[in-house]
Amino acid sequence: MDNLFLLILLPLISALILALLKTNAAKSIALILSIVSLALTIPFLCQFDPNGGMQFEKNWEWISALHIHFHLGVDGISLPLILLTNGLMPFIIATTFSKDYKGNFYALMAFMQAGLLLVFMALDAFTFYVGWEIALIPIYFICALWGEGDRIRVNLKFFIYTFLGSLLMLIGILYLYQQVPNHDFEWTSFIALELGDNTQRWLFWAFFIAFAIKIPIFPFHTWQPNTYTNAPAAGTMLLAGIMLKMGVYGLMRWLLPVVPTGVALYGQFAMILCVIGIVYASIIAIKQDDAKRLIAYSSIAHVGLISAGVFTWNTNGLSGATIQMLNHGISVIGLFYVLDIVQQRTQTRSLSELGGIASKAPKLAIFFMIICMGAVGLPLTNGFIGEFLLLKGVFQYGFWFAVFGGLTLILGAVYTLRLYQQTMLGEATDKTMQFEDVKGGELVVLSLISFLILYIGIFPNFLLNLSAGSVEVLSTFLGR
Amino acid sequence: MGAIITLSILALVVLYLGLFKAKTLLLPVSILGFLVAIGFLLNDWTADKGPLFSGMVHFDHYAIAFSVLCIVVTLCIFIISKGYFDEGGQVAEYYSLLIFSLTGAVLVNSYHNFSMLFLGIEIMSVALYILVGIRKRDKASNEAALKYFLMGAFSTGFLLFGIALLYGATGSFNLDEIKAYVVNNPHAISPLFYGGILLLIVGLTFKVGAAPFHFWTPDVYDGAPILITSYMSTVVKVASFAGLLRLFSYSLLPLQDFWEPVFLIIAIITLFIGNISAVMQSSFKRMLAYSSISHAGYMLFAIIAVGASSANSIFAYGLAYSLATIVAFTGLILVKKTTGSEHFEAFNGLGKRNPMLAFAMTVAMLSLAGIPLTAGFIGKFMMFSSVMEDYHIVLLILAVINAAIAVYYYLKVVVAMYFRDSEESCVNVQWNYSFVLLLAVGLTILIGVYPDCLLKLI
Fold first, then answer.
1. What does the pLDDT read at residue A306?
2. Other C-beta atoms within 10 Å of A262: how many?
3. Strand spans (E) along B389-457
4. DSSP readout, A56-77?
5. For A313-361, where are the alpha helices, taking DSSP H only?
6. Number of domains in chain B
7. Do the Cβ atoms of A358 and A365 come closer than 8 Å?
8. Which chain A residue is nearest to residue B309, measuring alpha carbons?
9. Where in the cell is it found (chain B) (predicted)?
10. What is the distance between the alpha carbons of residues B288 and B209, in angstroms, rounded to a whole number?
């Protein structure tokens, strides 16, 4: 059962099955299939040997005319993300049980899962690019079909923006393909190339822009707040929880090892962009009235810190980024889910119209508190260990970067607590008077998310061990 | 060779069938004829007999592959034309003219002598001049026919003049001898020859609809009946490209330094004009006309970076583009039947009115936009990678910008189908349409997922 291709195949088959289902059973079947996916991931976790090398490799010839291989493999950087993808999917599906989505919604989700897994497993640039693009199609349809507000225009912008970015990356990939002596797209051939400084300069930008748009790093973030706000809750979870990790993963897997000199030359500039993004997005988040928009901006700030950790290129920053990607996924899904519950019951997301929910729904208030603490990065929650490592890495890189990057903690506490305060505390308003507490499925999902937040916060070693070897290997590429 | 004879006889037979009012026989007989022609072509695949008839035509792998592509696409168009021209009454003429035009296309694919190139292009075009105006009571159709005829006559004049100049310089129409002339006189090539090349480029880029010789395209594509438009934008375009590439990759290859910049400029202008104009269209048919211009720009990449893989790239691109275009026009025909409009609004709510048709259209649009797992991506990927072999990075960046622009107008259709609602009734799809849609969409996805055998074909 240790065939990585099975992990991709299963969501594809699920997508086909779900697309044909017209009944309400689609929800339960989608949930079951996603849990099966998660279960199939466990053997890989158990057998994984954290030595930094690629494991469970599968290599088939795909398009022999162009020397393209369907080459899969995982190491300590991709395995946590595969775990994240397969682990979050059941949660995201479970959060939609109160909606009237049909089979096609879940089919798109499953299709996207296949694309994401392909991105995280691909060791061949062509395969990677295919996964990168096909993950975009389903999320576009999810956001535009089930979204709200100005969904058509916003998502068109999102699509064209990311598509342009990936095409730039395609140019870079094609260029590298020409450079490889025996013309293939293998990751190992790419990293073995000795490229000149000038080549690395433009290649850096070709890849960086593609990844920066996806993450998004300031100033390529302009699609993000609108897309997040107008997407359906499940779509936002997919985008913020999993899809933006594609970009960070791209930085770690393709940008750093392939163009190390380019990163050495422009890394500081990228770092400055990340730090600007952190401060800028946090300040905007503080002023938001729309709660979903607030979290959208907070997400820019959080991933800004994660990408800054990647660009520090030391073991602390890199392993912080790896673990924080996972933690951010869990926390952000919790946040969006609580918001979705609130919005469903009160028909509003406006902070000025909310308040006093804690008195009506104490259980929800407790869960929300735990999730908020995780997002802020309080000790004993999952966010702490990640942010601590990230800041440590950034501090090693440069004092002032750490000072400004560290603002994320303070500003993060400000907007997250403001969010909590404005929704949960204070006097109940007209809209929140009749607020019902969480029950049934909601209770289960929220308890599981809270449990994960606390568990990872207290016992983070398992995750750190997973990625330690690969991070060590990656950091040796510096200045090569 | 058997294919050309079969098609010529087929066209005459179809004409006679029309004379004897045997309307029901038209389609089966034509399909049978096509299959026989394909059989003749495939029979020659393994045995390359070299240039036939004192070097007039040459059915090599290249010619056979493109001819089969043209015939299969025409076959699809025939299948969807069942019932399309019922009201008119000139069904037999329509069928037989299309077959004549196809004969010309096969000649253009397989010529080995300029006289055959000229004959092929003329046979292909003259039949089309009539076909474009076949709705004789429709003003737009008449206008399109007149425009196409006048402009086409001009461009043929350029082509002929170019051929004459080449003849003046080399004393031959034969591709082999022209190649020998270029190879043997590297430093003493007559200025006539260069002039001839330029005039040939003008004549041939007119036929493929590349800027700045594209002005006929939108009006003619828009005015002609949809089926004729789909024929023109697939078979004629692919065949003309096959002819163009054959000339430049075979005879004129040593002079690449001379003609490459010309094609480079043409390609860039074509991309921008095609894409930017397509963005502004409100008619789906006109949008496809402009998008076909921009695709001509991408296909020119194979000629700019001419090399061992050019033939395969242009074949893959042409196939992907033809499949997607057929689906798009089939969708347009079906939608026009219920709404009577050719605008984007006609597609509103198609996702609910007919999910399968909407899915097929989505795949076609994604393929035209070049999204992975569709044939269009493989075509674009081949084009881009062949241009990268010559390190035309600036050209690639411009192409990438254009690809991003193109997504906008292709997604407009998707947006209309899925995200806008409509009061219109369901769209019924007859079996013949379903068959073509299934075939084209199936092939598009199949090639997108596993293109290996296709890329090693020629």
1. 92
2. 24
3. none
4. EEEEEEEEGGGTEEEEEEE-TT
5. 315-346, 357-360
6. 1
7. yes
8. A65
9. Cell membrane; Endomembrane system; Membrane
10. 13
Nearest to A226 by CA among A161, A169, A135: A161
Please answer yes or no on whether A174 and B366 come within 8 Å at the CB atom: no
Dump strand ranges (E) for B181-242.
none
Residues of A in contact with B356 (CB under 8 A): none
Q: What domain range is B383 assigned to?
A: 2-455
Average pLDDT, chain A: 89
State the Cα–Cα distance between residues A89 and A237, nearest whole angstrom: 10
Secondary structure letter of residue B76 according to DSSP: H
The pLDDT value recorded for residue A479 is 55
Quick one: which of B94, B226, B77, B101 has its CA closest to B152?
B101
pLDDT for the residue A380: 87
Q: Residue A480 pLDDT > 60, yes or no?
A: no
> What residues of chain B have any CB closer than 8 angstroms to a CB in chain A?
312, 366, 371-373, 377, 381, 384-385, 388-389, 391, 393, 396-397, 400-401, 403-404, 407-408, 411, 415, 418-419, 450-452, 455-456
**Where is A55: in which H helix or E strand?**
strand A55-63
Contact A259, A200 (CB under 8 A): yes
Residues A320, A305: Cα–Cα separation, whole Å: 10
Q: Look up the ipTM and state it.
A: 0.92
Say yes or no to pLDDT of A427 above 90: no
Q: In this complex, which of B388, B419, B450 lies closest to A144 when CB atoms are compared?
A: B419
pTM: 0.94
Please identify every stretch of chain B with a pLDDT value under 50, giving residue numbers as ranges. Answer: none
- What is the DSSP annotation of A208-241? HHHHHHHTTPTTS-TTHHHHHHHS-HHHHHIIII
